[in-house]
Amino acid sequence: MNTIPDIIDALSVSESDVDCRLRARLAAAADDAGLLDVAYRTVDSPVGSLLLAATDRGLVRVAFAGEGHDAVLQKLAEQISPRMLRAPARLDAVARELEEYFLGERTSFDVPLDFRLARGFRREVLTHLPEIRYGQTWSYATVAAAAGSPRAVRAVGTACATNPLPVVVPCHRVVRSDGSLGQYVGGAEAKSLLLTLEAAA
C-alpha cells in the first residue's frame, strides 16, 4: 500500500517529467519556427557547473559558475538576442564532447564555434589557441607572436581573460614566461585542474 509520502514523491517525479517534456516541445517548436536565436543548458564538470549557449552558427558561450550564469544569460540577451530558451538537446553534442574531454578520452573539440563575441585582435588570438596541443602550454609572448603582434603580450592576456569559450578554446594552456599560471576566468584552481588533467593523459 502506498503511503502519502510515496504518492507525493510519485507526483513530484511525474510533474518534473511533464515540465521537461513541455520545455523540450516548446524549444523544438521555437527552433522549427526560427524563433530560437540562443539555446542554452548547464552541465556539471570537475571545474563546477558550466553554462553552454549556442546560436545557429555554433557554440557561442561557455561560462563558469563564478561568472554568474544569470548575468551571462542577461548579457547574451543584450549582445545577441532576447529570443533565448533552455534547450538542452541543441547542445547535446557539446555536452558529450566536454564529458569525453573531462574523462581524458578527447584531446580537441569538433563542435562548430561562433566567435561573434570576440572582435579584432582578441578574436585573432582565440583562433590561434587551438594550435596549442593538448598537454602543452605556450607563453603569452608565444601566442602574441603567433597572432602576428609579438609586442602585444598584454593584449593576449586580455583576450584570454575575456575568452567567451573557455575550455573548448584552450586559453588555460597559456601561461606566463616563467611558467606560473597567470589569470584565468574560471579561477586559478580550475586552470590548474585542467592542466593537470591534460598532463596526466
TrEMBL record:
Coiled coil: none annotated. Pfam families: DNA_binding_1, Methyltransf_1N. Keywords: Cytoplasm, DNA damage, DNA repair, Methyltransferase, Transferase. This is Methylated-DNA--protein-cysteine methyltransferase. It comes from Rhodococcus tibetensis. It is found in: Cytoplasm. Involved in the cellular defense against the biological effects of O6-methylguanine (O6-MeG) and O4-methylthymine (O4-MeT) in DNA. Repairs the methylated nucleobase in DNA by stoichiometrically transferring the methyl group to a cysteine residue in the enzyme. This is a suicide reaction: the enzyme is irreversibly inactivated. The keyword DNA damage applies. It catalyses: a 6-O-methyl-2'-deoxyguanosine in DNA + L-cysteinyl-[protein] = S-methyl-L-cysteinyl-[protein] + a 2'-deoxyguanosine in DNA; a 4-O-methyl-thymidine in DNA + L-cysteinyl-[protein] = a thymidine in DNA + S-methyl-L-cysteinyl-[protein]. Its EC number is 2.1.1.63. Its main location: cytoplasm. Residues 121-199 form the Methylated-DNA-[protein]-cysteine S-methyltransferase DNA binding domain. This enzyme catalyzes only one turnover and therefore is not strictly catalytic. According to one definition, an enzyme is a biocatalyst that acts repeatedly and over many reaction cycles. It is an enzyme of class 2 (transferase). The keyword Transferase applies. Belongs to the MGMT family. Residues 39-115 form the Methylguanine DNA methyltransferase ribonuclease-like domain. PANTHER family: METHYLATED-DNA--PROTEIN-CYSTEINE METHYLTRANSFERASE (PTHR10815:SF5). The active site is at C171 (nucleophile).
